[in-house]
Design brief:
Blueprint: H1 4-16, H2 22-36, H3 40-53, H4 58-70, H5 74-87, H6 92-100, H7 109-119, H8 126-142, H9 146-164, H10 172-185, E1 201-205, H11 211-219, E2 224-226, H12 232-239, H13 252-265, E3 275-278, H14 287-293, E4 299-303, H15 306-314, H16 328-349, E5 353-357, H17 358-363, H18 365-376, H19 422-429
Parallel strand pairs: 1-3, 1-4, 2-3, 4-5
Helix pairs in contact: 1-2, 2-3, 2-4, 3-4, 4-5, 5-6, 6-7, 6-8, 7-8, 8-9, 10-16, 15-16, 16-19
């Protein structure tokens, strides 16, 4: 119900009454504090308390490792995952996460062999097999063993599809119908409305297109509160009856209520001197809704070389509900639908949308960041290019990349896998 403060208080009462399994209560509080309320220091305290109560509590060790990752503490994350494996040597998730924070060249052959052995265990759960397979692919890719990495990723995607059941089947016809409905529901830009100028800054695009990098660069300005990957807009869209086709019947009162509900759930309120970002990549689906809620909202659209973007999606262990990522051809189809919808939004709201090309940004960072800051109304300084030195939480798959200086090695990465991508190159050429 998203009543997080009340949930925390209820857990406190349970602890005061001497609840059994108090370590689980501490873990639940940590998840609320870290994932939903953006209070990682308090989450760390809760996890420490859980482990004082039960040092072998593997779920707390896994969450502690994940929290260290979010904060950029690689060695601490490795130690947490190793501790989890000490207590539960067969824990697939702990092994996969350890591999995820152990990328190196040359390859750690012992760790790779351990992953291969765990994948081959008879009767292994499909989801665990996928976790291990994606971890193995990442380890091999980082070591430059590209053909073996691709084979590992392909097997991991197959395992993820099998584990996901019907939810992991991408229906191209349904995807096309969704985009058709969104375009039909928002055929024109809404008329100008008198609204406060303060609105969140929305950053969106396909997953793995550079949105986290853009948010980190903006956060280095000191004027931007990076709220990260919020689920507020998708949750609101799911709660609206007959969305999106009922958009023409929305009353001003209903829109105002939704707006206030959204703002109340932000970790920080936007203001004239404080910009708050909502960096949810798939908000590109809901720009019509966003512009009804906040007619003055500025939107940053991140994009990337299609082959690099599609390959990066295929190499990432996404929720099986994002079924398009489990197959290269399906991912290429979804990329085409995304482009079709973005062309529509740009035709309606182009003056309020800045497209930031990842490849151009890493090649020419000063020029592109100057334009980005100008669009956001923020003074640019050379210091923002040292964004990687800034502390803070990153809760996306780019957690380690955005803690490095700008680099170009991910731009054109697809060439390492070119002979695996001939089919989707033809699909993309047909857009």
């Amino acid at each position: 119900m998203r009543q997080f403060d009340d949930a925390l208080e209820s857990y406190v009462q349970a602890l005061e009454y001497g609840v059994g399994g108090a370590e689980e209560v501490r873990l639940n509080r940590a998840v609320i504090l870290g994932d939903f309320l953006h209070r990682p220091d308090e989450a760390l305290i809760e996890l420490d308390q859980a482990l004082k109560l039960r040092p072998d509590y593997v779920p707390a060790l896994l969450n502690l490792g994940n929290l260290h990752e979010d904060q950029g503490r690689r060695e601490e994350a490795q130690a947490s995952y190793r501790a989890a494996l000490d207590h539960d040597p067969g824990n697939a998730l702990a092994l996969a996460r350890l591999a995820g924070v152990s990328h190196a060249q040359p390859l750690d052959r012992g760790l790779a062999d351990r992953l291969v052995g765990a994948i081959a265990v008879p009767g292994i759960d499909g989801a665990a097999k996928a976790d291990l397979g994606f971890a193995l692919g990442g380890l091999l890719d980082a070591a430059g063993e590209y053909d073996d990495a691709f084979a590992a990723y392909a097997a991991a995607n197959r395992a993820s599809r099998e584990a996901g059941g019907k939810a992991a089947i991408y229906d191209r016809g349904q995807a096309e119908q969704l985009i058709d409905r969104l375009i039909a529901a928002f055929p024109a830009a809404p008329p100008p409305a008198r609204m406060p100028k303060s609105a969140p800054l929305f950053i969106c695009g396909l997953f793995r297109s550079g949105s986290t990098l853009v948010e980190r660069i903006l956060g280095a300005s000191g004027r931007v509160a990076a709220a990260g990957e919020l689920d507020l807009i998708p949750a609101l869209a799911r709660a609206i009856a007959e969305y999106p086709q009922g958009a023409s019947t929305w009353s001003d009162a209903a829109v105002a209520e939704w707006r206030q509900s959204y703002l109340a759930a932000l970790p920080e309120q936007p203001g004239d001197e404080r910009i708050v970002t909502d960096k949810r990549p798939d908000n590109f689906l809901h720009l019509g809704l966003i512009k009804r809620l906040f007619p003055s909202a500025r939107i940053i659209h991140t994009r990337r070389n299609p082959l690099d973007n599609i390959l990066s999606l295929y190499f990432l262990h996404l929720d099986p509900g994002m079924a398009y990522a489990l197959d290269l051809d399906d991912a290429a189809h979804w990329h085409g639908e995304y482009r079709r919808l973005m062309d529509h939004w740009l035709s309606l709201y182009g003056h309020d949308i800045l497209t930031v090309d990842y490849d151009a940004l890493v090649r020419n960072p000063e020029t592109k960041t100057r334009r980005l800051f100008e669009f956001c109304g923020i003074d640019w300084t050379p210091a923002v290019l040292d964004f990687q030195a800034r502390a803070g939480t990153v809760k996306t798959a780019s957690v380690w990349q955005v803690r490095e200086s700008l680099y170009t090695r991910s731009s054109g990465r697809w060439r390492n896998y070119a002979h695996h991508l001939e089919a989707i190159r033809k699909i993309i050429a047909g857009y």
